[in-house]
Amino acid sequence: MKRISPPRRPHDMPRPIPRRTVRTTTHIHRLPRFLLAWLALCCLPRFADASGDWYVGRRVSPSQLVPLDRIDHSLWDALLQKYVDRDGFVDYRRWKATAADRQALDRYLAILSTGNPDQRTTRQAKLAFWINAYNALTIRGILREYPTTSIRNHTARLFGYNIWKNLHLYVGGKPYHLEQIEHQILRPMRDPRIHFAIVCASRGCPRLLNRAYVPEKVDEQLDANARDFFSRPQNFRFDPAANRFYLSSILSWFAEDFGSDTAAQLRRIAPYLPTEAARQAALRGNVSISYLDYDWSLNDQSTRRTARR
């Protein structure tokens, strides 16, 4: 079968580094450079360090840690219902303007910090915990930068702040960044449905579910979001006349997570496809495949133009 590969994943490309400006007075700019550097370090926010890393949540003593299945996700659930619509678009403007709810998000992240990732728990509790952690951490990072048009504006490759690598959440006393959560925790669980649940604040992502993932419902929630993902033309289209699938680039970037070869990958997604004809074509495995362009623009309600209803 013929495959047309998408362009290289955009966040692998370097981006221009924003220049930082420092306001000075006629007295300050005459100070020695080493003293200016010392003043800059002293004035860094408490959650950032000199390398540009930013930490949220809190360090927790071992005696305060609890199993992941005892973490309460209700605060996150309430915030999602308040600020995220059914298509996964976020009201970042109102959320950022509401100090009480920014603080509520910080409280939820502090709750996540009390989880003990080393203590035995259920697969469902681990999935729910880390999916929620990834999404909540991403939202926190975007709220810090907002207004912005894309998460890609905050992903310096060589120098400067990279939201995927420099934004950390403390869990069990250790910091975890977004790439660690995705590639070192969730992907090794070998459940490709995570790719329809973790959201990098972009329109090309799966929708951000406006409910928290919870252990007792996580499999049902993952199935529902997978079906939703393939129901949207930005992620999947089937041309029966040409016998061709048009798939989200996510299915190319993470192809190995869905199976060892194309036929296995198509069988894996078949149950979630929107029509019987598409499901049968996937099971036969004889379709050609093209990959759709990925939309990195922010999943922001205030700039939304059209969405599937």
Describe this structure in words.
This protein has about 300 residues and is α/β, with parallel strands linked by helices. The chain is about 40% helix and about 10% strand. The protein has twelve helices and seven strands. Helix 4 (about 100-115) runs antiparallel to helix 5 (about 125-145) and helix 11 (about 260-270) packs antiparallel against helix 12.
Overall 3D form: globular
Range of strand content: 5-15%
Number of H- or I-type helical stretches: 12
- Mean pLDDT, nearest integer? 88
The number of distinct β-strands equals: 7
Low-confidence stretches: 10-31, 34-47
Tell me the radius of gyration. 21 Å
- N/C terminus separation: 34 Å
Helical content class = 25-40%
Structural class: alpha/beta
How are helices and strands ordered from N to C? EHEHHHHHEEHHEEHHHHE
Q: What is the strand arrangement across the widest sheet?
A: 1-7-6-5
Question: Quick one: biggest sheet?
Answer: 4 strands, mixed
